[in-house]
Design goal:
The complex is a heterodimer of chains A (about 120) and B (about 290). Chain A contains five helices and five strands, in the order βαβαβαβαβα. Chain A has helices at about 10-25, 35-45, 60-70, 85-95, 105-120, and strands at about 5, 25-30, 50-55, 75-80, 100. Chain A has a five-stranded parallel beta sheet, sandwiched between helices. In chain A, helix 2 (about 35-45) runs parallel beside helix 3 (about 60-70). Chain B is α+β, with helices and mostly antiparallel strands and about 290 residues long. Chain B folds into two domains: about 1-140, no CATH class; about 145-285, 3-Layer(aba) Sandwich (Chemotaxis protein chec). In chain B, the strands form two sheets. In chain B, strands 1, 2, 4, 5, 6, 7, 9 and 10 form an eight-stranded antiparallel beta sheet that branches. In chain B, helix 10 (about 135-140) packs across helix 11 (about 150-165) and helix 11 crosses helix 13 (about 225-245). The longest helix of chain B has 25 residues, at about 225-245. The chains are: A alpha/beta (about 120), B alpha+beta (about 290).
């Protein structure tokens, strides 16, 4: 089971993700409400996986992803996005995002994405 | 949708009582089988395929049948067959009214006629309403000046129907010069032009929407309700952006905002449409 850090400016999204992930037996070890906070929590908590919202005020997910990858090139980051953000998704792939989850959340999509990333991590 | 539009009109004109309508709609809900269930029970698709389509439906602006055909799970002929089996919502509604001895079948013609005249609809418009085709019904509720907002509003209504409440229905939209309300959420979409969309609380509709999306039974308005409303707005705008990006250039979604007091949406052109979610009213707003 994975230790997960959730970074999202929306309390609702953080709560829904936490519910899905904990329901699947994962452990949510921290939350951040913007990119900067997420980056600091990552350094402090060393999670297995980070879920990172793309659209956030202060520091968005793309900027935070670059920082995370600079800090730890093996960081496993799942980007959270609404549909229609193709350019941002291309940027996220370029900067090393492992997976994508589209909002609104579907439980199976979230669980499958984490499982996939954890399998990659083992390899 | 048709049963809610006509049913509420009949209540407002005193043809039937709210209680009679609620009873009929409850029964109709039990009788009308979902398309996916018919397709599975007819052996056209598997349960897993139906669940996959349901999942996809929540994140894109497509109908069940369209996804099933696109995925190669079903043919057009099969889709037409199950649509026929599901039955027409308008006819089921009339049948339910007659069975409950609330109205005689011939009286329905008068209801349709007065509804048509009061709303300025033509005979062909009424055929569209009777067809219960959401995609075609929503534009009938928009003023002609709102033509360029048709897609954004259509996507919003269909997303609410798919993700929040399948009985959501619209009222007549209007063009306004600005929207000033206390409890509202909004989001800017930047592309060739800047659009703003929003949800404005009216009579509990936002609370209902937020409770379903946020997976929590909210009891009153607070920041958590607005946060959930803003997140759902973000999802809708993502669907709209995906549609527009396929035709023009990409729209960038700015972080959604919410206001407990002093919310404001401005623009050169603003359209506001009332929507009833779980029978409670809210407004969806598009501005440019």
């Amino acid at each position: 089971m994975a230790k997960i850090l959730i970074v999202d400016d929306s309390k609702t999204s953080r709560k829904i993700l936490r519910g899905i992930l904990e329901g699947a037996g994962h452990s949510v070890i921290g939350e951040g409400s913007n990119g900067e906070e997420g980056f600091l929590k990552y350094k402090e908590l060393h999670p297995d996986v980070v879920t990172l919202d793309i659209t956030m005020p202060t520091m968005d997910g793309i900027e935070a992803l670059q920082l995370l990858k600079k800090e730890d090139e093996n960081a496993k980051v799942i980007m959270i996005t609404a549909l229609g953000q193709k350019e941002k998704m291309i940027q996220a792939i370029k900067y090393g995002a492992s997976e994508f989850i589209t909002k609104p959340f579907e439980d199976d999509d979230v669980i499958n994405a984490v499982q996939k990333v954890m399998e990659e991590k083992k390899v | 949708m048709v049963e809610y539009i006509l049913g509420n009109y009949m209540v407002s004109t005193g043809k039937i009582s709210q209680k009679q309508l609620d009873n009929i709609l409850d029964k109709q809900d039990q009788v009308r089988v979902k398309l996916g269930l018919i397709a599975v029970s007819e052996g056209m698709i598997t349960q897993e395929q139906a669940e996959e389509i349901n999942r996809l439906q929540s994140t894109c602006d497509k109908r069940f049948g369209d996804i099933a055909i696109e995925k190669g799970y079903m043919t057009q002929v099969q889709l037409e067959k199950i649509l026929k089996m599901q039955g027409n919502a308008y006819l089921i509604f009339v049948q339910s009214l007659v069975d409950a001895e609330v109205l005689k079948a011939e009286e329905m013609e008068n209801v349709i006629d007065s509804f048509r005249k009061e709303n300025g609809y033509g005979l062909s418009d009424m055929e569209i309403i009777k067809s219960d085709d959401v995609e075609k019904i929503v534009p009938l509720f928009l003023p002609t000046e709102a033509e360029e907002f048709e897609e954004a509003i259509g996507i919003a209504v269909r997303a609410i129907i798919r993700c929040i409440d399948r009985h959501t229905y619209p009222g007549k939209a209007e063009m306004v010069t600005e929207v000033l309300e206390d409890q509202m959420v909004s989001q800017k979409l930047e592309g060739k032009t800047v659009k703003t969309t929003g949800f404005v609380e009216a009579e509990g509709g936002m609370l209902e929407l937020a409770s379903v999306y946020g997976r929590e039974a909210f009891e009153g308005m607070n920041e958590d309700v607005l946060d959930a409303g803003a997140e759902f707005l973000n999802c809708i705008n993502g669907m709209y952006s995906a549609t527009i990006s396929a035709k023009e250039s990409e729209l960038e979604l700015m972080p959604p905002e919410y206001f407990m007091a002093g919310g404001k949406i401005t623009g050169n052109k603003i359209c506001r449409i009332p929507l009833w979610v779980k029978n409670k009213k809210l407004y969806f707003v598009v501005a440019e």
